Amino acid sequence: METGSPQDAVTAETEPAWTGLPPGLLRMRRLLLVVWLGSLTVAAGLVPGLLAGPAWAVFALLPLALMVWGWVLIGRNWRSWRYAERADDLLLSRGVLWHTVTVVPYGRMQLVEVTSGPVERHFGLASVQLHTAAAATDATIPGLDPAEAERLRDRLTELGQARSAGL
Amino acid sequence: MTTPGTHDQVRREVTVTERRLHPITPFRRAWAPVAVLIGWALHDPDATHRQLTRLTTTTILIALAVVIPAAALYGFLSWWFTHFAVTETELRIRTGLLFRRTAHIRLERIQAIDVTRPLLARVAGVAKLKLDVIGTDKKDELAYLGEADARALRAELLARAAGFAPETAHEVGEAPEQRLLHVPAGVLAVSLLLTGATWATLAAALVVPPVLWFFTHNLWTVVATAVPLLGAAGASSVGRFVAEYDWTVAESPDGIRIDRGLLDRAHETVPPGRVQTVRIVEPLLWRRRGWVRVELDVAGSSNSVLLPVAPREVAEPLIARVLPGVTVPPASSLSRPPRRAGRCMPLWWRGYGFTVTDEVFVARHGLLRRSLALVPHAKVQSVRQEQGPWMRRWRLADVHVDTGANKTVTARLRDAEEAARLLRAQAERSRTGRRDARPDRWMA
C-alpha cells in the first residue's frame, strides 16, 4: 500500500515495521514447481518426440513457458507477503493483483495455531494461523521458520491474554 | 483418573442436581419410521401393493411385537440417559446410550436463549429450550421440557448468567418485561404483499409448470417442478406470515425479548450487549410507506429478525435500545463512493454508502432494496482492506469488517487512500471500543 502522504500524520507515524517471509517458502515453492512442471516438460517433449517425430517435441514449450511464468509469479507473491506486530494488533498484507491487508487486534484472538505439513517440515517451515470469533478472518502467515513461528505464537498468545475481550 | 479428580467428581455429584427431560420426549421421533414407510409406499406404489398382499396377519403381528417394543425401549433408554444440570457457571447436558456425549455450556457465554413450542408440542404442553453459544449445534437443545419448567429454567439460566448469586438465582424469577412494540397482522400482511419476492415466486409457480407442459407433455416433469415452486411460493408468503404473526418485542433487564408465531410459537431472549450487527432493510415498495425491516445478528443464533415490518420512526428508537447509545445516522450523512466507482460497478455504485460514528461502523448497499448495516466498534473481530486489479486501476478499495456472528459488513469502493486510513482508524476504534462495553454478566 502506498500510504504516508505528508499531510496524513496519523498514517505516517504509525507506519509499522514490516517483516517479510524468510526465503525458505520461496525455495520450497520454486522447487516443487520445477520438479512437477520439469518432469511434465520432459514427458511432453519425449513422448510425442519419440512416437510422432522430433518436430512434435515443441509441445514441451508449453509446460516450460508455464514454469517460467510460475517462477516469476511465485517470486512476486512471496515478496507481497509481510506482517507487522504492532503494539495492539497484528497487520498482515498479501497479494499482488488481489491485495489484502488484514488487521487483527490481539484482544480478539481466540486461538493461535502453528501447523506444519510433511513437505513444509522437510523444508523446515511452519505456518501460524490466527483464529478470531469471525471465520472470515483469514489470517495465516505461511512459510515461517519454526522457531520464529513458535516465538510468534507465544507472543501472540501472551498479548492476547493481556488484552483479552469477549465477543 | 487421579484422586483429586475423583473427589471433585464426588463433590459435584453431591451439589449438582441432575434433571431429566419431559417424559413425552421419546415420542418426538415416533413419526420418523412411519414417515419412512409412507415415503417408500409413495415412491413405489406397485411394489408396495405386492408386498402388502403377501403379508398375513401373523407376520404383521410378529413384526409389530418386535418393532414396537424395540422402538419403545430405544426411546425410553435415550430419554433415561439424557440428563441436564445447572451448575454455578455452566449448563451441563449428558446424553447418549452407546456414544456418551457431555456438553458443558458456559453461562456467561450465552448469546441468546430460545424457547420454541412447535404446534404439536403446544398441544402436549411442552417446549424446547436452546442456549445460543458459539459452536453449539442442534444436539445441545433441551427438547422437551414442560412449559412451566422451560420458563422457570430460562429465568434461572438468565439470572445465573446475569451474575446473581446461585442461591438466589431460583428466587429471582422472571424479570419484569415492558412491551415495546407489536406488529399488527394487517400491516404484516400488507408488507408481504408489497414484497417483490412473494410475487416473483408466485409468478414462477404459476408460469413455469404450464410452459413445461406445453413443451414436454410429461406429467412427472411438470409435477416435479411445480411442487417445489409452489412450496417456495407458500413459504415466502403464507409461511412467513405464519412465522411472523403476532410479533412482539419487549424489553426486560435480561435484554430484548421477541415472541412470535401463529402455529409454532417461538420466544427469544437476547441479553444486553450480545448484538453483533443490526441491519435496516428497506424494500423498494415499502419506501413510500416509510416501512423498514430490522434484522440482527447474534452469534450462534438462528433467528435474525428483530422486527419484520415497522415504520422507520418506530424502528429507530428500538435500535437505540438494542444497541445502547447508538443513533441511526440519517441517509444524508452517508458518503457515497467517488464518481469513478461507476467504472467498477456501473449504476449500482450509487447504492453504496458509508460512515463512521463514535459507536458504530455504518455501511449501506443496494439500490432498489436498500440495506443499512450497523456494527458497534466493540464487536469488530478483524478489519480487512481488499483491492483487485481493476479497482487499483481506479484507486479504489473495499474495507471489510468481520463480526463475531460470522457476518462481514463491507464499505465498498472507497477511495484507496481513504480506505487505508479507515483500516488503521477502524482497528484503533475496535480495540478501544471494548473498554466501555458492558460486562458479560450484565447484573454483576
From TrEMBL, chain A:
Protein's UniProt name: Membrane protein
Upper classification of the organism: Bacteria, Bacillati, Actinomycetota, Actinomycetes, Kitasatosporales
Transmembrane annotation, as ranges: 31-50, 56-74
UniProt keyword annotations, A-Z: Membrane, Transmembrane, Transmembrane helix
Species of the source: Streptomyces spinoverrucosus
Coiled coil region boundaries: none
Source species, domain of life: Bacteria
Pfam family, one: bPH_2
Record-linked InterPro entries: YdbS-like_PH
From TrEMBL, chain B:
Superkingdom of origin: Bacteria
Xref: Pfam families: bPH_2
Repeat is among the record's keywords: no
Every YdbS-like PH domain range: 79-156, 249-318, 349-424
Segments traversing the membrane: 60-82, 187-213, 219-243
Entry annotated with the keyword Iron-sulfur: no
InterPro entries listed in its UniProt record: UCP026631 (IPR014529), YdbS-like_PH (IPR005182)
Coiled-coil residue spans: none
Keyword field: Membrane, Transmembrane, Transmembrane helix
Segments for region (Disordered): 424-444
Name of the protein in question: YdbS-like PH domain-containing protein
